[in-house]
Amino acid sequence: MTTLFHLLFVVIKSSILGLLYTPVVWFLWVLFLKAQKKYTGFKWFSVFAVYKIVSISLIVFSFTYYGNHGLGDESRIPLGHGEAMEESDQFAYFVPKGKSEQIHVDTYFKRR
Predict the structure, then answer these.
(1) d(Cα 96, Cα 109) in Å, to the nearest integer?
(2) Range of the domain at 10
(3) pLDDT digit string, tens, across residues 101-111
(4) 70 in a structural domain
(5) 6: in domain
(6) Residues 79, 67: contact at Cβ < 8 Å?
(7) Dist. CA 105–CA 87, nearest whole Å
């Protein structure tokens, strides 16, 4: 259930961020069109089209490697090179590449 609420939160957050980023992206697009001498004037339809593209891009990014922070009770911090630190039920663990077993953070740090 918490995963569903978090998914709904991601969609709402992406929509709000889309509202904030759309004027910036639209302004840059207008500058590009004016430089190409292809600007035809202000149209609300074009602003709404940019809003849809920005919002969908933010939702897609939230499920990529760098945007995925886990849904619901699961937490995830991408570390790079395909590895991530994950947390579930108050236990943080690290899954190295090529290993099928989890290494608890305390054990991982004590070995070094």
Answers:
(1) 13
(2) 2-61
(3) 655 565 555 55
(4) no
(5) yes
(6) no
(7) 10
**Cα–Cα distance, 103 to 99 (Å, whole number):** 9
Element (H, E) at 14: helix 2-35
Q: Which ranges in 36-95 belong to alpha helices (H)?
A: 44-61
Q: Taking the model in full, what pTM does it have?
A: 0.63
* Cβ 96 vs Cβ 79: under 8 Å: no
Dump pLDDT digits (tens) for 37-63: 888 888 888 889 999 999 999 888 888
* Cα–Cα distance list, 56 to 12, 22, 30, 38, 39 (Å): 11, 12, 20, 26, 25
Evaluate whether residue 34 is within a structural domain: yes
Closest CA to 30 of 46, 17, 45: 46
- In the prediction, which pLDDT does 3 show? 76
The number of distinct structural domains making up the chain is: 2
